[in-house]
Amino acid sequence: MLWLKAFHIIFMVTWFAALFYLPRLFVYHAMLDADDELGDARLRTMERKLFRGIMTPGGVLTVGSGLALMYAYGPIVAHWGWLHAKLVLVAALIAYHVWCGFLLRDFAHGRNRHNHVWYRWFNEAPTLLLVGIIILAVVRPF
Question: What are phi and psi of 74, to 5 degrees?
């Protein structure tokens, strides 16, 4: 079970690294001059590769290993209130991940509707979720 926990943490770190970096790329993309086609193409490629090659596999492996951990602990997890709260935050994180996918698609089709300041604020959400998830998992307040 310790190996499974270790890989769960590794996958989570990978997922969060991408969740922090992709919105930062969106900030740079939103700041780009309209006539900078080379920069636009470069950022679209970076965003796509990050989302498909690192972020999505990291998220899938994190959720999968988390479910495996829950299964390994057995029915006792039904009584862990902290775990239920953590799962709500993980669901919010998955929604954020999907939202990033929609924003990625908008950039890919030249339909960005937000400015760089909006993306800077958008970039803060995974930090808040990370703090909540870690506190719940380590402190287990209830």
Answer: 85, -160
- Measured at the alpha carbon of residue 90, what is the angle toward residues 86 and 92, in degrees to the nearest 5? 115
Half-sphere exposure of 47 (CA within 13 A, CB side): 26
Whole-number Å distance between alpha carbons of 3 and 82: 22
Encode pLDDT of 41-65 as tens digits.
999 999 999 999 999 999 999 999 9
Q: Residue 137 in contact with residue 87, Cβ under 8 Å?
A: no
Q: What is the pTM of this model?
A: 0.95
The residues, ordered by sequence, that sit 6+ positions from 132 with a Cβ below 8 Å of its Cβ are 85, 86, 89
Using an 8 Å Cβ cutoff, are 47 and 22 in contact? yes
Q: Which two tokens stand for residue 126?
A: 């995974």
In the chain, what is the straight-line distance between the N-terminal and C-terminal CA atoms, in Å?
A: 23
Structure tokens belonging to residue 54: 């690192």
